[in-house]
Amino acid sequence: MAEIFPKEELVATMRCRKGALLPCKLDWPIQKFCYWGGRPVDTRPPGAPIWRDLWGVGWQKESADPTMLPFPIEHPFESDAGRWEQLVPPDTGDPSLFADLVNVRHLSNRLLIGEHTFALYQRAWLLAGMQNLLTAMAEAPQRVDDLFARIVDFEIDIAHNYLSLGVEAVWIDDDYGMNSGLGFTPEMWRRYVRPPLQKLINIYHDADALVILHSCGNITQLIDDFLEIGVEVLDPLQPSCNRLDLIRKRTAGRICMCGAIDGTSLRNGDSAKATSLTDERILTLGREGGYIVGPDDPWGIPLTAQEAMLTAVEHYRDSARRERT
Questions:
Q1: How far apart are CA 274 and CA 289, in angstroms?
Q2: Average pLDDT, the chain
Q3: Is 165:210 a contact under the CB 8 Å cutoff?
Q4: Which domain, by its residues, includes 273?
Q5: Nearest to 244 by CA among 42, 102, 252
Q6: pLDDT in tens, 250-266
Q7: Is there a single domain that holds both residue 239 and residue 225?
Q8: Which of 65-74, 159-168, 169-178 shows the lowest mean pLDDT across its residues?
Q9: Looking at the 3D structure of the chain, how many domains does it have?
Q10: Is residue 152 located within the same domain as residue 166?
């Protein structure tokens, strides 16, 4: 049985320390958990295709595959923006939200990560409807500020609960990009999303916890902002829509890049292709550390491609080990 990748090497890479062994998303030593109801699948009644989450968002499950997420189809504040001020976030004092996590056994050789799913912008559009939210950003800024303030207060309470349970890192899931660019202007992101995101990040930094920000799509325009607010790890960096060379140049030694290999290119199971893509990314993004190699989307990647990627990664790890002796 292969030894687990050393946790201290993963942390060193996340903090962009040179000389750390190369981590891989396929075997990195992490332990993620989420409060009850944080993921929409948590509240799905057996056999029910449509259900409501803790916030009242209606979800529909269209696939029997348990790994596939449902789709949001009903937004509780979509029809009347004037009702946004009536939003009452879920009660973070409800012990059922953390009842399961209290009994989680934290494995000391794994990095314990608390998840904030649909953290800020995504939560806002799930509640208000995307078009309504974007319109309000342009026409009703105070109303949007109030909505984000209510959401981030909830997330901060979640953060305090996570920290009391011993989390060492946070996974903030909040998609900002599309294939062609951001889903809204960089100025809107800085006006509405950055301030509450900074508040949430500060909670974790005050506890010396690592911050991992997950945002799909093209987020190249926000890289300088991520540097300024203190993001340590940026995932998944889809190569099909991001300037990876530009992002690496700006973030070298300051933000750890995570992912950046096109998962769709691996789904045919071609081991030679998996090896070449892995080698290419390591050479272009990981020469000086601060890179966690892996697919931007691990779903559906055959075992042959996974094994080829791990074999290629192990080659670089062996080289680093020899240099240490």
A1: 21
A2: 94
A3: no
A4: 1-28+234-325
A5: 252
A6: 999 999 999 999 999 99
A7: no
A8: 65-74
A9: 2
A10: yes
